[in-house]
Specification:
There is one protein chain. The protein is of the alpha+beta class. It has two domains: 66 residues, no CATH class; 204 residues, Fumarylacetoacetase-like, C-terminal domain (Fumarylacetoacetate hydrolase, domain 2). 16% of the residues lie in helices and 30% in strands. It is built from six helices and 18 strands. The strands form three sheets. Strands 1, 2, 3, 4, 5, 6, 7, 10, 11, 13 and 16 form an eleven-stranded mixed β-sheet that branches. A five-stranded mixed β-sheet has the order 8-18-17-14-15, with no helix packed on it. A two-stranded antiparallel ribbon has the order 9-12. Strand 17 and strand 18 form a beta hairpin.
Length: 287
């Protein structure tokens, strides 16, 4: 099932070219009071809500996908975890270009570890990316994103996929420069997620998905998730050895080679097989 958030925080199921409004199921979520939970309540409840969502589909109101504003499909992730240089060719690309590494130490992912992006940087595809420092080089990085579905700590690789609620497409926007990685990747709108969440049952093998990123119609990145140095199960095991993972936590799995600068006015179209397409506009920002 393809689940989306749209317009004024409505919940939808994507069916072909339409969105089916199943927002009524949100009434089944538990109410909460301060202090708020550190996880996404909808993602946590998905296993028990999916039958009700399925039952609503035949009578749900239909709206063309193109007529709605798509929000980030996960509203409240506790953590946005990202994998640096997790494709071999991208590692070679970064090491070979001083405009990418700026004398920062670049290591193989198993030595470099993972990093966190600010949750406040999360945005759906319809808003677009607002350049934080347009006077500097800004790069889009296309990534497969795994959404954690239940609490995970010290997970074995063999069991890791059982903790995945679903998958999305992500753009890890990056300002190039000498500052620490998380700082340059966390301005508002610099973590794009969407266009919807594809439940894990529709993607039993996320390790063999074609992906591509086009900028103004020109291909910039093209790869397959089989090229990941650490695949989704290894990343979940690695992350959970340091953090307790909660429902709604996002794992951006890394970007392939082909990163290049973008500017205001550019159109980014990122596609991952069996998930869909992100269509994102780049807008200007104050210098």
């Amino acid at each position: 099932m393809k689940i989306c958030r749209y317009d004024d925080n409505r919940l939808g199921v994507v069916d072909g070219a339409d969105v089916l409004d199943v927002s009524a199921v949100l009434q089944e979520l538990s109410s909460c009071r301060y202090p708020l939970p550190h996880h996404d309540m909808l993602v946590e409840a998905l296993p028990r809500l999916l039958p009700a969502i399925e039952a609503m589909k035949p009578r749900a109101k239909r709206t063309p996908v193109d007529a709605v504003k798509l929000l980030a499909p996960v509203a409240n992730p506790g953590k946005v975890i990202a994998a640096p240089v997790n494709y071999t060719k991208h590692l070679q690309e970064v090491l070979g270009d001083a405009n990418l590494h700026h004398d920062n130490q670049i290591n193989h992912i198993e030595r470099a570890g993972l990093f966190l992006k600010a949750v406040s940087s999360l945005e759906g595809m319809s808003r677009g990316v607002e350049l934080s420092h347009p006077e500097r080089r800004n790069d889009p990085e296309l990534e497969l994103v795994a959404v954690i579905g239940r609490v995970a700590k010290n997970v074995d690789v063999a069991d890791a996929l059982a903790y995945v609620a679903g998958y999305c497409i992500g753009l890890d926007m990056t300002i190039r420069g000498p500052e620490e990685r998380s700082f340059r990747k966390s301005p508002d709108t610099y973590t794009v997620l969407g266009p919807w969440l594809v439940t894990a049952d529709e993607l039993p093998d996320a390790g063999a998905l074609d992906m591509s990123l086009h900028v103004n119609g020109e291909v910039r990145q093209r790869a397959n998730t089989r090229d990941l140095i650490l695949g989704v199960p290894q990343l979940i095991a690695f992350a959970s050895s340091f953090y307790t993972l909660h429902p709604g936590d996002l794992i951006y799995t890394g970007t392939p080679e082909g990163v290049a600068a973008i500017k205001a006015g550019d159109r980014l179209v990122g596609t991952i097989d069996r998930i869909g397409t992100l269509d994102v506009r780049i807008v200007g920002g104050a210098q």
